[in-house]
Design a protein that fits this description.
single chain, 94 residues, alpha+beta, Trna Endonuclease, Chain: A, domain 1, four-stranded mixed β-sheet, globular
Length: 94
């Protein structure tokens, strides 16, 4: 039985940065295999997995399900975001 998905501790801050920079944000962390967010920016969509960069590396590892979802996704590869700088780099690359 799947545990209820919970948002990462830094999700509110990450979402605020995406929105401040003009991205649309859709929360999907409660949908199995959907990762945490889908963002839209400059006519592109990206699936996002959020990890808390302030936690030790062992606490930031992808779960088995997250890793499988990312590996098997046939669209644009999902992106792992750990901090505000990751958001800025992603959006600037779009």
């Amino acid at each position: 039985m799947r545990r209820r998905a919970k948002a990462d501790d830094n999700q509110v801050e990450i979402v605020a940065v995406f929105r401040k920079m003009g991205a649309s944000v859709c929360h999907v962390h409660s949908i199995p295999h959907a990762l945490d967010l889908i963002i839209g920016f400059k006519n592109q969509d990206v699936r996002i997995e959020i990890k808390d960069g302030s936690k030790p590396p062992s606490a930031r590892r992808l779960t088995e399900g997250e890793a499988k979802t990312i590996k098997e996704w046939r669209g644009r590869p999902p992106v792992v975001i750990e901090c505000e700088d990751d958001v800025i780099k992603l959006l600037e690359s779009m």
